[in-house]
Amino acid sequence: MTTTSERTQAPAHAVARRKTSWNTVLRVVLLLIAAALTLGPVLWTLSTSLRSPSESFKLPPSFFPWNPDFTSYAQVFQQLDMVILVLNSALVTGLIAVGQMVSAAMAGYAFANLKFRGRGALFSIVLATMMVPVQVTIVPVFMLIRGMGLSDTLLALILPAIPTAFGTFLMRQYFLGLPADLAEAAAIDGASPWRTFRSVYAPLAVPGMAIVGILAFNFHWNEFFRPLIMTISEKNFTLPLGLVSLQGNMGTGSISVVLAGVVLSMIPALVVFIFGQRALQAGLTAGTGK
Amino acid sequence: MTGATNGRLREISRRTALGALGVGIVGATVASWPRLSGTDIPGRGDNSLSIAIMGTAADAAARQRAIDAFTRLHPEIRIKVQAIQAVDWKDFFTKILTMVAAGTPPDVVYVATEGAQLFADKLAHPLDEYLRRDAADMAEYFDDVHPSLVEAFMYKGSLYQLPMDWNAANMYYNTTAFRQAGLDRPADDWTHLDFRNSLVAMRKARPADFTPYYWTNRLFGGVVPWLYANETSFLKETRSTGGDWLWDGFYAKDPSRSLRSGGYQWLEPNADDPRVFESFDYLRGLVKDGLGVRPEEGGGNSLVGLFASNRIGTTPAGGYWVQGLHEAGMKENDFDVQFFPKWKSQRHQFGTAGYAIMKTAKDKDAAWEWIKFSASREAMELIFPNPVTTPARRSMVNEQLYTGKGPAHWKVFYDTLDKYPTTGPIPAPPQQAAVETALMKNVSLAVSGDERQLKEALGSMQRDLELALRRQS
Amino acid sequence: MSTTTRHRAEPAGKVAPPAAHAKAGRHSQPWLAWLFLAPTILGMGMFTLLPIVASVVLAFFRWDIISAPTFVGFDNFAEVVQDPTVRVSFVNTLVFVVVAVALQMGLALGLAIMVQEKLPAWLRTFFRSAFFFPLILSAASVSIFMRYLFNEQFGVVNWLLSLVGIPAVPWLTTSGGSAAVVILVYVWQNFGFSFLLFVGGLASIPVETYEAASLDGATGWRKHLHVTLPLLSPTTLLASVMAIISALQVFDQPYVLTRGGPGDSTRTAVMVIFESAFQRLEFGQASAIGVILTLIIMAITAAQFRLSKRFVFYQ
């Protein structure tokens, strides 16, 4: 921030400098408070999951696990088939992510770079579907799935989630951001429109597709409502459903076990967070260009 | 120059990587197809007898020994237990209804009192013909099971389930908290006023960081035990006629024979009863004076931890709680149990559960064989090795089940039925979900304000219940 | 293509103005476009549009899944409109949206401005990551642990308040308290989304704009009021549209935290849809509520875009 060389500047300036640096201190303090409020509950969850059940309600609370006790984690594995839950969640979210990346890239490209009648109207309809709550359509979707013979399968979770309005919107923005002369150059080289997409645009769109994929992963990994309705067998449960059932009927669940489950479910999302944070932040801000 | 080459190289390797990724994804999808389409779930789509229970894989596995024993007895019947995870019974019934809607209903469902009439009314097949046929075999079971439990599964003169396990709302107390407050074990017939005095004593002994009476807002163990003890309820309770075939057949000599009927009926709301007001007002007083908590809706998830860490003096619960407290580190003398306090009477509230045969079951005879087997002492001992619930058979609620875990006065559990034969089930008409919502949503407001707010809450409860009972399902 | 203005910080996602692109799409091979659109359009047709139509049709029937549906005309709508629980849930939803979105946007904007001003790079990264973090958690698990934190007797929140002498707040057991908790938990988890949108928006405001403003004598908050806010208005529109659409559909938080209670104080519109469909098996009524809710969402969004024509300032 302020360096010694700046301090030797003219007095009038120095006053201004000092003022900004006080501002900076205040700003950082406010930001630190906000960060503490944001991360505090998560730290508490982590440290409480590492305490024995009888200690879990000790006050003052501890936010750091000094003497970790892993029995609650063992309990989680005893009560839940974590392997199948993680496998299901991974399959569902993975395939949704891939499906969304491909379908959104194609649709986004069409909306951005191809001309056809009714383009604007169709795009508006696609966007408008974002406004319909999933609870409104879940019953007909459920009957449709039944008609397809897919009741209580993972496919019942995957197929309806592949078409994505937000992903299409993002990809359209992304393609609009790519230079237009690429297409012209390709056309001059005699490339067919399909080749232009496959060889020129699609490779360039990979970062955009990654954003769509990460967003899809983040959303569907944590999804609660659709799995609540669409899956019945425990074998088809995804993580969030398994977790809620850890709470136990009639208060027989133990807080540290529940929280251990919560922490375990955070791990994959955390990995994505660490590696995909950049892309995800980029993705979320991409739409704001205009 | 090098830049361009690099670019092309990168381009090529990127394309290769993408291609590999694509192949990988397709491969993974194909490999996991059985998982995606659910065809790897054993017994799916075949003609084995499918049994839905509420619980986790661990609960299903706990039944494996019972299933093995059953298979030795009936090698021709194949059993498939589906554990269905749910937060509470309402959630579980939602799942079963979803299965019905999906066209894949189970053949047999483990249903608790909360859903007994919903199933009896719409989904289940009565057991009457089987009980008449196998009366000789079943006499031993009914001898060992209290008729109050059986009556809870009577609906309009027919029996739909055999009770397997049950729990009454007794009063658990923390012995350390009692000792600190200078209190002895309460008398069997302590009254609601005695109860209040013990809470006051505990509050005095530990002014902070402690709750003398913790309770939750649920159909079981919430406000209802206080209504039952005051000889009232939030629904008008009537009985239907019939069922004499069962009572005369199996309970002719039971001292409470004259009390038995063709089943409970809850047809009218009763929240405007002055005694309902009286019970709520008592609880409101506990909350106001800091003796009891304001109950959280659907709460109780943290109850075991709170109780085990000595932060709670008393709370209503049944035999199902023992194992949980044991696992949370409570020693057998750290807690004990006593009957629910007396008011006008000492009528308790209980909930029970058992298997129901679905109307849509393909092989009802096989389903009955499973139920009959599950009611045997042999099967029950395999299914309930630990006190995670109270077995319906009196002879199994014994020393052996509670040794080393407590409570010292475990006899209270079954004595609740034997000493207070009017003890009644959780009120749950076929419109259970709507009725439960109508009750629960008004409880917190009723007990946490002034008298006017209480009257308003009861008024709105009465209206909500009326609406709920008018509904079709 | 990309603008040559100096940026105050590298924009997180480089998106050039679409204007430069207007002439790009000149391949007139409609069949190709339809081929590209096929997966999305067919999928949406099947799993969104068709179900919407089915839902509207279902709203005119009484159906409990077990027995055959019967046509009841407008009965479902009439019953739903008169049902006090449904009415309260709609009011709750609207109040929730107004308060939660205002909090979320205000918090996000304030923090974004503070983060984007001069700050060491590592600190900026830390804050961005911290505010973003709750977004990756599931609303269900967040609600699970928040429920413990807000417990009246034993929760950490009341313990913290007791340190500064505030008596225990009955968070989850009073109407006001539980509404506050649902809002706080929702905002806690979602403000990061708006925050990132604002960070992106701020990064694309050219430094010259501020320099010019400084020359005119604008400083501190005046600078933000007169320069930042107008230039951010496109971002604000996008952020608020998205925040409102998702807040109108809030389900997980109240479902896990309060189950809609006490009373109906935290029952939201989509919760009522869920309850009447899957707990009471009144699929016709559930559909009727859904149709009304969807119409309201559409009306609100349309109103926002109409208003935006007047208030949004495009560079």
TrEMBL record, chain A:
<keyword id="KW-0472">Membrane</keyword>
<feature type="transmembrane region" description="Helical">
    <location>
        <begin position="154"/>
        <end position="171"/>
    </location>
</feature>
<keyword id="KW-0812">Transmembrane</keyword>
<feature type="domain" description="ABC transmembrane type-1">
    <location>
        <begin position="86"/>
        <end position="276"/>
    </location>
</feature>
<keyword id="KW-1133">Transmembrane helix</keyword>
<keyword id="KW-0813">Transport</keyword>
<comment type="similarity">
    <text>Belongs to the binding-protein-dependent transport system permease family.</text>
</comment>
<dbReference type="Pfam" id="PF00528">
    <property type="entry name" value="BPD_transp_1"/>
</dbReference>
<protein>
    <submittedName>
        <fullName>Carbohydrate ABC transporter permease</fullName>
    </submittedName>
</protein>
<feature type="transmembrane region" description="Helical">
    <location>
        <begin position="255"/>
        <end position="275"/>
    </location>
</feature>
<dbReference type="InterPro" id="IPR035906">
    <property type="entry name" value="MetI-like_sf"/>
</dbReference>
<feature type="transmembrane region" description="Helical">
    <location>
        <begin position="121"/>
        <end position="142"/>
    </location>
</feature>
<keyword id="KW-1003">Cell membrane</keyword>
<feature type="transmembrane region" description="Helical">
    <location>
        <begin position="200"/>
        <end position="221"/>
    </location>
</feature>
<dbReference type="GO" id="GO:0005886">
    <property type="term" value="C:plasma membrane"/>
</dbReference>
TrEMBL record, chain B:
<dbReference type="InterPro" id="IPR050490">
    <property type="entry name" value="Bact_solute-bd_prot1"/>
</dbReference>
<dbReference type="GO" id="GO:0030313">
    <property type="term" value="C:cell envelope"/>
</dbReference>
<dbReference type="InterPro" id="IPR006059">
    <property type="entry name" value="SBP"/>
</dbReference>
<protein>
    <submittedName>
        <fullName>Extracellular solute-binding protein</fullName>
    </submittedName>
</protein>
<keyword id="KW-0813">Transport</keyword>
<dbReference type="Pfam" id="PF01547">
    <property type="entry name" value="SBP_bac_1"/>
</dbReference>
<keyword id="KW-0732">Signal</keyword>
<comment type="similarity">
    <text>Belongs to the bacterial solute-binding protein 1 family.</text>
</comment>
Automatic annotation (TrEMBL), chain C:
<keyword id="KW-1133">Transmembrane helix</keyword>
<dbReference type="GO" id="GO:0005886">
    <property type="term" value="C:plasma membrane"/>
</dbReference>
<feature type="transmembrane region" description="Helical">
    <location>
        <begin position="286"/>
        <end position="305"/>
    </location>
</feature>
<feature type="region of interest" description="Disordered">
    <location>
        <begin position="1"/>
        <end position="22"/>
    </location>
</feature>
<dbReference type="InterPro" id="IPR035906">
    <property type="entry name" value="MetI-like_sf"/>
</dbReference>
<feature type="transmembrane region" description="Helical">
    <location>
        <begin position="94"/>
        <end position="114"/>
    </location>
</feature>
<dbReference type="InterPro" id="IPR051393">
    <property type="entry name" value="ABC_transporter_permease"/>
</dbReference>
<dbReference type="Pfam" id="PF00528">
    <property type="entry name" value="BPD_transp_1"/>
</dbReference>
<feature type="transmembrane region" description="Helical">
    <location>
        <begin position="126"/>
        <end position="148"/>
    </location>
</feature>
<keyword id="KW-0812">Transmembrane</keyword>
<feature type="transmembrane region" description="Helical">
    <location>
        <begin position="168"/>
        <end position="188"/>
    </location>
</feature>
<keyword id="KW-1003">Cell membrane</keyword>
<keyword id="KW-0472">Membrane</keyword>
<feature type="transmembrane region" description="Helical">
    <location>
        <begin position="231"/>
        <end position="251"/>
    </location>
</feature>
<comment type="similarity">
    <text>Belongs to the binding-protein-dependent transport system permease family.</text>
</comment>
